[in-house]
Write a structure and sequence with these properties.
heterodimer, A: mainly alpha, B: 259 residues, mainly alpha, Cytochrome Bc1 Complex, Chain C, 11 helices, binds protoporphyrin IX containing FE
Chain lengths: 327, 259
């Protein structure tokens, strides 16, 4: 298979230069040069895995029993990141939509970054190594902090928001935002994002003409069953009418979709913007290096969190504290 | 020095050994059966070396020549090739496991347990299958990173990158479907988590669960579906996409190089 010698860009025709090597002279034969390398690496891997398999046995627990649920039960490590995401946002986003978007993004990369420069060599753009390292560190920190932030009453965020008062359950409308506590339990600040829809309450005066009947718009009470237009119409073979009978729960959408997704979008845009202002991200290729690195780092970090930092009931704990209750 | 002696007459012991060696070599490699398999001897001229690659059914996945930079280990770290090698090892060990395994909820677990204790090298085969499966997932990610950071997805290799993304998904799904087969607690509950994730698909969650898992919980239907996907449907698909993948590398003018 002959490859044509590419033209050398940016050189005046006729300028003195060494005779370019012919393509053929730069080529080696697959047999023996490549076949040899392939053979050696196959042999090395075979030996390694035979030794590994002699030393470490694949796990085999008790026979499957649908009545006995181990706590925690975990997905295989390469899906643990999705299981981790499930704790923080709407399950459709965590389990299906975000992974689909990520894969779609991967597949689309070559169609969005069509430049031909910087190919065939490692880290072809000027600052790509720097961008990659910074993004790995950044994404690790962001994921770690967000996980800790959304983790429950051990977090600083909970302390920091304790000043928000406890709700008076007898009041008709709470004017100032407040947090509902379990009766008799001590007052907690905002523990997880879900508290925005579950425990946070406030109300603002609101004209009845715009949909209320008591002069107040109460969060979350007045907003958790907003009917979608045409949700009561019969049409289109029943199940094809996707939003039949559907009501919107605005506080829930805020807590489980808007806040988590805009957080992801915010931190993505932030790092690209900062690297751009620093002059390190210069081309589309650089933008994609940032995003690709960020997505893969998040994938890995969330898997690690799921593997080593999640105990019973998916509580965030240290690796040495994990005890599996076989059920 | 002129030749005075007739050739072929050994003068001393060493020459006798030499002649014996030649005879054995001749018997082994120049007999009717060997030559019916391998039409020529060791390819020791460039022309024959290219011919052997072009005409051997296994080697012809390769081009006959490639650029100097691409045989440097540090260019690919052999990652794509090793992913493929893991696939081959998994096929071999997987076929051996199939001899002993019946995808029936009443038998599956006992079959695996018996395989580990009663079958010679059964445990070794299972371990190999398990660890190379994990390795394949890791390697496919590393290979994708190598391709990305060397910018090898750029024109004209866009589509081969997309084929790669499909292979990535196939690798993950292959690994996941295999996870259920031992039918132990680890398998059941890990797949239950996946079942829940699939069920969370907007609008089509229930349908996904029904189609992929054969029901709203993990039972005999899920086991037979996962088994069928794992041992035939997905490997076949993966093999087809790998064939396209390798073919495209050559059609795209070999591996990517700086312009
Ligand atoms: C089962 C999975 C896969 C197998 C067996 C496989 C195998 C290979 C092999 C053997 C090569 C030759 C060069 C090398 O070894 O690096 C290659 C190149 C390539 N692979 Fe894959 N691959 C797989 C998955 C992927 C994935 C997930 C992607 C990207 C998303 C991808 C994209 C590419 C591209 C674009 C090339 C051309 C690289 C170049 O021109 O330098 N492959 N693949």
């Amino acid at each position: 298979m002959a490859i044509e010698a590419p033209p050398v860009p940016g050189r005046a025709p006729g300028a003195a230069r060494p005779r370019p090597k012919r393509e053929r002279e730069e080529e080696v034969l697959v047999w023996p040069d490549l076949v040899f390398v392939e053979f050696i690496s196959a042999v090395l891997f075979t030996i390694t895995f035979v030794i590994l398999s002699v030393l470490i046995n694949a796990p085999l627990l008790n026979r499957a029993n649908t009545d006995v649920t181990p706590n925690p039960s975990k997905a295989p490590w390469y899906f643990l990141n999705l299981q981790e995401l499930l704790l923080h946002m709407d399950k459709a986003w965590a389990g299906v939509l975000l992974p689909t978007i990520a894969l779609g993004f991967f597949a689309a990369i070559p169609y969005l970054d069509r430049s031909r420069e910087a190919q065939g060599i490692w880290f072809g753009t000027k600052y790509s190594v720097r961008i990659t390292i910074i993004t790995v560190v950044y994404a690790t920190l962001v994921c770690g902090i967000l996980v800790a932030f959304d983790a429950g009453d051990r977090t600083k965020f909970e302390y920091a928001t304790r000043w928000i008062p406890s709700c008076d359950n007898t009041a008709q409308h709470v004017g100032f935002p407040c947090l509902r506590d379990e009766p008799g339990a001590k007052h907690l600040g905002i523990v997880t994002t879900k508290d925005f829809s579950k425990r946070l309450q406030f109300s603002i005066p609101w004209p009845d003409a715009l949909g209320t009947d008591d002069g107040h718009l109460d969060w979350p009470r007045d907003l958790d069953r907003i009917p979608v237009p045409f949700n009561n119409v019969d049409c289109c073979y029943g199940s094809l009418h996707l939003w039949k009978g559907m009501n919107l729960n605005i506080p829930d959408i805020m807590a489980n979709q808007v806040i988590p997704l805009s957080t992801i979008a915010f931190f993505t845009v932030l790092i690209i913007y900062v690297l751009f202002r620093l002059g390190w991200v210069r081309t589309r290729r650089d933008v994609f290096i940032t995003m690709f690195t960020g997505v893969l780092t998040a994938y890995l970090v969330l898997s690690l969190v799921g593997s080593f930092f999640r105990g019973q009931g998916q509580a965030l704990i240290w690796p040495w504290e994990i005890k599996v209750d076989p059920g | 020095m002129a030749f005075t002696e007739e050739p072929g007459k050994p003068r001393n012991f060493q020459e006798r050994i030499g002649i014996l060696q030649d005879r054995i070599y001749d018997r082994v490699f120049h007999n009717y059966i060997w030559q019916s398999i391998f039409r020529s001897g060791y390819p020791n001229t460039p022309r024959n070396q290219m011919l052997v690659v072009a005409t051997n059914v296994f080697l012809h996945l390769h081009p006959t020549r490639l650029h100097r930079t691409h045989v440097k280990i540090t260019h690919t770290y052999c990652l794509g090739g090793l992913t493929f090698f893991m696939f081959l090892v998994l096929t071999v060990t997987g076929v051996l496991l199939m001899f002993y395994y019946v995808p029936d909820v009443n038998r599956a677990y006992q079959d695996i347990a018996a395989l580990e204790t009663n079958v010679k090298f059964g445990l070794l085969m299972r371990n190999l299958h398990r660890w190379t499966a994990h390795a394949m997932v890791i390697l496919v990610f590393l290979h994708m990173m190598r391709v990305f950071y060397t910018g090898a997805y750029k024109p004209p290799r866009e589509f081969n990158w997309v084929v790669g993304v499909i292979l990535l998904v196939l690798t993950l799904v292959l690994s996941f479907t295999g996870y259920l087969l031992p039918w132990d607690q680890l398998a059941l509950w890990a797949v239950t988590v996946g079942h829940g994730i699939a069920g969370s698909a907007p609008y089509f969650g229930d349908e996904t669960q029904l189609i992929v898992f054969g029901g709203y919980e993990i039972g005999p239907n899920a086991l037979i579906r996962f088994y069928t996907l794992h041992v035939i449907a997905l490997p076949l698909l993966a093999a087809i996409f790998m064939a396209v993948h390798f073919w495209r590398i050559r059609r795209d003018g070999g591996m990517a190089r700086p312009l």
